[in-house]
Specification:
The chain is built from 2 helices and no strands. With 57 residues, it is mainly α. The longest helix is centred in the C-terminal third of the chain and has 26 residues, at 26-51. The protein starts with a helix and ends in a 6-residue tail after the last helix. The mean pLDDT is 84. The chain crosses the membrane at residues 26-47. Keywords: Membrane, Transmembrane, Transmembrane helix.
């Protein structure tokens, strides 16, 4: 799962760099930002769900 998170972060960064560097490709920057935010939100949700499953002793 961590590998998927890192891969999506890498794709978001590459899309963001291409979108920021090239003229008329601002939509790639927007896609990269949205992908990064969604990836971080999904990873945070998985971490919070995992933290709540502690066994009762």
């Amino acid at each position: 799962m961590v590998v998927l998170f890192l891969l999506l972060v890498l794709v978001a960064v590459v899309l963001g760099l291409i979108g920021a560097a090239a003229d008329d490709l601002g939509y790639l920057l927007a896609i990269g930002i949205v992908l990064f935010v969604a990836d971080v939100a999904f990873f945070a949700m998985r971490l919070s769900r995992r933290a709540r499953r502690r066994p009762v002793r």
